[in-house]
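Write out this protein's structure.
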Amino acid sequence: MTDIESTAATLPAPLQNTRGRVIFASLIGTTIEFYDFYAYATASVLVFPTLFFPRASEIHAILSAFAIFGVAFVARPLGSVLFGHHGDRLGRKGTLVISLLVMGIATFLVGFLPAATGSLVVLAPLMLVLLRFAQGLALGGEWSGAALLATENAPANKRAVYGTFPQLGAPIGFILANTVFVGLQRFLTPQQFMDWGWRVPFFLSAFMVPVGLWVRLNLIESISFQKVVENQKIERSPFMATMKNHGRSVVAGTFIMLATYVIFYLMTSFTLTYGTAPATVEQAAAAAAAKGKAFDPAGFVPGLGIARAEFLTMLIIGVVFFGIFTVVSGPLAEKFGRRSFLIAVTTAILVFGLSWTLMFGPGQSAVMVGLIIGFTLTGLSFGPMAAILPELFPSNVRYTGSAVAYNLASVLGAAPASFVAIALWQAGRGNTLWVGIYLALSASLTLIALFMTPETRDTDYENNLA
């Protein structure tokens, strides 16, 4: 044995995070972040149209609330550049702590917002926009950091499996947020809920954030990032290096994620709006009268007429399947490869879109079946993303590259999904055929991106330095 080999053999192994710490830290952070995000999304349907746009018609109030909901998706690419810069230059750990703090504080403050009445008719919605922007900024950096935390600490041939843990935070956060809303609606009167009950889910986030912070503060930087530092491969501007040298990977990752975003927001925000909209003119007139608003029968567009608490419960059941199949997707993506597996799932999403009205047409009774199928496909599609998107980029720009791709996809897929779907439903006078076609077209674009992208499963993840 040479002197060099002898010295190397006696050097201590790089410090690593334990499996339990990696799983819990990646899961708890995204669970909190998505809880905060979905609490807002649910309130956008149930509360914000009335509180912040009291002078608008029913449908225009809903569209205005969703427009503010979309502000976060404009902020997310900015967050991906900001947090990606620090994540690739200073490390994953500190960046993840800051993103969680920003999201938690912004969400907590939403609970204090006043209604848009009197002199606050402009100021209240403006404050909502600013806090929503902060939420989007934080989420823009959160996902990629959590994905790298899981995959950069994964054993060999387990990246797709470990990558499902941060992904699992999405369904868990959704279930927690909506369970709180369902409970409040069941135990409070409608007036109590509108007066103060809707604020409770936002206040609760203040109790969860310290747990996530404590776990993340005790993390150790991944070996991948340690090697970036050791090899002096830190980029002065990770964003510029990403766009200059890996622009094609950014475009590929953006469109690979597109269909996942569209189906998720159709299954959650749009179906909640459409499913709880009055099914008859009589129901619509009664709902308008209860809110003290005038009703114009000529502008009536039928929904499914399902009670809000009941539909939220149906969504929670559907999201359970989302969670289950997010976990299932990891081993399958590891066995068959990310590309082949996602091609099969995306093809199924395309077929699901073309079959949309069989489950979500006016008067249909197969809604629960449609929700289960849709959320199952969402989980199968969403699960492998924490593996495939980071694998498109080398270690020294991995945070920035995967974050930018993921969040550009949110601008193209998530931000307009609910707004476009509501507009298509309204234009169809209750017929949702074009909503399904919209989903199918999104899946087609994702398929093209997948066919043009090589398999990433066998990437030398730890030593891949640009």
